[in-house]
Amino acid sequence: MKLVKYLYKMRKKNLLLILGGIYIFTLVTFGVIYWKVANESAGEFFIFQNDINMNTKVNIFKKNLKIKIYNKDFNNIISRLITFEEYKRPLVRLRSDKDKNMYFFAFDKPLGENWAEYYYLLFNGQGITHMKIENVEESNVNNMTSTYKLNVSLYKILDKNNNENYMIFRKEESRKLQKVRSITIWIKDYPIIYEELFKGKDHLYPTSFYFMKIMENSVSFLDDSPLVLKSVANGKFKYPFWNFLYFSAVTITTLGYGDILPNSTMVRVLVMFETIFGVVIIGMFASCLFWNNK
C-alpha cells in the first residue's frame, strides 16, 4: 500500500513538472513567433506604448554606434532628437581637402540645441570636461558664407575628486588636464561667437557651456549619428526578443497590461490561442497540485 502511494506521489510530481515545462515552452514559443512577426512586418502588426517603442529605438541607436553610456539624460536627448524629427534634416557628406576625411553637413540650419546637448553628453560620458580651440580658418562649405573651420582639442581633468569641471583654465594650468582627442568643426559666424564668449585662444573652457554654444552654431556633425538616427527612427532595425517574450508572458498569464497590443488579425488569433492554452494549463496544474491523495 505504501509503495502504491509513493508511486502515485511520484506520478503527481512528474505531471506537475511536465505541465510546468509545457507552460514555459508555450510562453517561449509564442514569444519567438511574435518576435518574428514583428520584425517581418517592421512593427506594423503591433501597437507599442510610446515609452517602450522609444526605449527600443534609443537602445538600438546606442548599440549601432557602440555607445556605452547608461545615463538618463543621454537617453532623453536621443529621444528628443527622434521626437523632434532631427533625422529628417537634409544632409550631405563631403570630403575635406586637407585631411581627406569625410564629414556630414546640415545645410538647412545650424545643428541647434538638441544636437549640441547630444554631443556634450556624449563626450561628458567619456569623461571629457574641457575644450581648447587650437586653430581657426575661414573655410566656406559648399558656397556657404561666414563658415569657419575649427580644430578643437578635448581634455579631461586628471584628478576626478576635484570640483573644477566648470572652471576656465589658463595655459599654464593645463597640466591639470589630459588631452583626449581632437575634432574638427565647421561653424557659422565664429567671430561674433568668439567676441561674445571667449577670453583668449590659449584658455581651456568647460564643455558644459562653451562647447555647447559652438555646436549650436555648427553646420557639421562629428560622427555618423545623424545617419544612424535616421535609420532607427524609420524602423530599419530588429526589435529585441525580450520585448515579445514579455508580451507572451503577459498574454499567457492573462494580465494584459496593454503596453504592447496586437494590430492584425493574425496576431489576434495567436493571442487568443495562447491565452486559452495558458488558462487550460494553469487549470490542470492547479487541479493536480491540490489533488487529494486519500
Automatic annotation (TrEMBL):
GO biological process: monoatomic ion transmembrane transport
Keywords: Ion channel, Ion transport, Membrane, Transmembrane, Transmembrane helix, Transport
TM stretches of this protein: 15-35, 239-257, 269-292
Pfam families: Ion_trans_2
Ranges where the Potassium channel domain occurs: 236-288
Name of protein: Two pore domain potassium channel family protein
